[in-house]
Amino acid sequence: MLRTDRQQNVTILALGKSYDSLDLARLDQVRRSLLDEADHADPPLLALDFTRTEFIGSSFIELLVRAWKRIKQRDGLIVLCRLNPFCEEVFRVARLDQIWEIFPTRQEAIETLNGTPRGP
To answer: What is the distance between the alpha carbons of residues 83 and 61, in angstroms, rounded to a whole number?
Structure first.
């Protein structure tokens, strides 16, 4: 399940428990929601909250890259927050922490997004 909230001009997507590459129904749901928010969030600031997420697979990471490219075209940003140790290690080992900033709390993610200048 994916829940969407707005706090201080930031769209927050609270992710579900697992995004295994074999769970096509769950990946399709998160794909629709994430890409829709990347295309339409105003302002284009997304924080992905991994509080409940225990596992991510390569298809989920590919989806994040697609969303990042879309929101980047709109001079927007995506950040990650509240990752468990396994998920954080996946992002760091794959050097994806070079693309997305990772924050220990949702509030730190929101504050950073609100303080980051965008566009030319």
So the answer is: 14
Neighbour-count burial for 29-55, b at 16+ CB within 10 Å, e otherwise: ebbebbeebbeebeebbbbbbbeebee
Name the class of domain 3-115: alpha beta
pLDDT at residue 119 tops 80: no
Domain boundaries, the chain: 3-115
Distance CA 37, CA 21 (A): 21
Q: Are 105 and 81 in contact (CB under 8 A)?
A: yes
pTM > 0.90: yes or no:
no
Owner of token pair 């074999």: 22
CB 77 within 8 A of CB 103: no
Share of residues in the chain with pLDDT > 90 (%): 70
